[in-house]
C-alpha cells in the first residue's frame, strides 16, 4: 500500500523537538514524495532548514505474517516512529531502508507514522552530490533536497519470507546465478522453487533446499545443439531481452511466499583498450544526466517521467547515460533494463576530506551497490568524480588511499563490472581512464587526441582542465580511454525561470549555431580512434546550467532526429578496432 500523498509537516528551526510527543502543532501539509524545496510538494521553501518533521495516518490491521514499512530515500538522516514507538533510524540520503513494524501496530487498525529528517544545509562532509550549500544555486550546484524524496509504502508478508534476491549473469556457459535470502523463523523443510521463462518458453524450473536461510545457485541453460537459441537471449540496448523469474518458497507442501522478478543474460567488461558488451567491442555513446526536474528537484514527477527520460536518451541516439552525482530512483533503472539503456552509476560526492566523510561515503555506496547490483543496465560503477572530496590526490597519500580503497571495495562486492576510481582526471586505480575536456575548439581536440598522438604522449604532456590525467606511479596500462565529459554548449538566451546567470562552457545564441557546433564536435570525437566511448554534457538544462540538448521540461532544442543522426553515426573503420 502506497503511503505517498498528503502528510502533516513542520520545520524544526532550532532542532529542539526530540520526539512525536513534543510536537505542538502541524502548521503545514506536504505532498510526499516531493521535498519541501520543490513546488510540487505544496511548500516550495528553498531556505535553510536543518530539521523537518512528517506525520500521517494509515490503516492496516494486525494479522497473520509481518508488516514492513519502506522508505525509498530520505535525505539525510531519518528517525521513524510508529504509534509513538521508535521503529528505525537511517543515515544516507540516497538509499532505501525499512522496518518491521508488526509489534508496534495498534489493534484497532489505525496507525500513525512520524518521521524526523535532519539535513544540515551547510554540512560538506556528507555525500550531497549537486545540492548547493549556498542559499541561491551557484556555478554547477542546484537547490537542496530535504527529507522524503522517493516513494513510501507498507506491505504485509509471511512470517517467513523471501527478503532479497540477487542475480548474476555468467555468459560463459550461459548460466545465471541466483542468491535468495530469507527472513523470519525457520520452520524446517523449506525449499525454494525457481522458474525462468523467456516469453512462453520455459528455460528452467529448479527447486533447492534452503540452508541457513539462504539459497545460492547457478542455473545453466541447456545447450540445444547447433541451432543455439540462447544467443537470442542476450541483453543489449539494441535488444533488451529480459527473462521473467518466479520464486516460490515451499514449506510442508505449501507455498508460503511467492515473488516475481526478472534478470538478463549479458556480460560487461574491459578487454585491453576496449569496452566489451556480450564478448564484443562496443562503443559507448553516452550522455550525462543529472536527474533533476524543475518542479520536483531530485524526485521524479512520476513514473512516466522516468520512462520518458530513458526514451528521450535513446531517441537522441545514445546507448547509455552517466547518472551524474545521483543514485537514481530504481524505477529509472527498471525502465533502462526494459527499454535498453546502459547506465554508469556514480556516488554523490562529499566536499571535505574527513574520516566522517569517508565513513559516510563507504556506508552509503555499499548500500547503493547492494540495491542496484541485479540491474543488467548498470555496466560501470563510479565512486569519485573529479577528485571531489579528495582534492589533494597528487600530494596527500590518504586521499589516494581513499580512491584506491573504494575502487577495490567495489570490485570486491561486484567483480562483474568495470569501476572508475575517480572520473575526469588524476586517475590511479581504474578500469577505464575517463577524461573531462570542455574545449569546443575542434582543432584543439584533434591536436590533443588525434591519430598522431600516442597514449604515452597524452598522459605525459596533456592536462585538460589543468589536471594530470594519471597520478605519478600509475601510468596508463592499456585501459580504454574515454572522453567522459565534453561539450557543455549553452544557450545564452534560454535560462530557466528565476535563473539570473546561466552556466555553460561554450555559449551560443541560436539553435542553428548550437546544432552545427554539436554536429562538428560529435563527428570529431566519434571518429577519434583513441576513444572507445564518450559522454556528452548534457541531457537537459538543469537550473542555471543551460547546456542541455533538451530544455529543463525535456523539450528538444533542435529536432531529436537531427541529434540522433550525428550521435549514432557509424564510426570510421579503425584497423584492429571498432
Question: Key features?
Answer:
578 residues; alpha/beta; Immunoglobulin-like; eight-stranded parallel beta sheet; 33 strands; 17% helix; Galactose-bd-like_sf; hydrolase; Glyco_hydro_2_N; hydrolase activity
Descriptive account of the structure:
This protein is 17% helix and 32% strand. The strands form nine sheets. The chain has an eight-stranded parallel beta sheet. Helix 1 crosses helix 2. The radius of gyration is 25 Å and the shape is globular. The mean pLDDT is 93.
Specify Rg, calculated over alpha carbons.
Answer: 25 Å
Number of helices: 8
Beta content: 25-35%
User: Strand sequence of the main sheet, in spatial order?
Assistant: 27-25-24-23-22-33-30-29
Structural class: alpha/beta
- CATH top level assignment of the largest domain: Alpha Beta
Uncertain residue segments: none
Largest sheet, if any?
A: 8 strands, parallel
Helix content: 10-25%
How many domains in all? Answer: 3
Mean pLDDT: 93
Tell me the overall shape: globular
| Through-space gap between termini | 49 Å
Short description:
By secondary structure, the protein is α/β, with parallel strands linked by helices. Helices cover 17% and strands 32% of the residues.
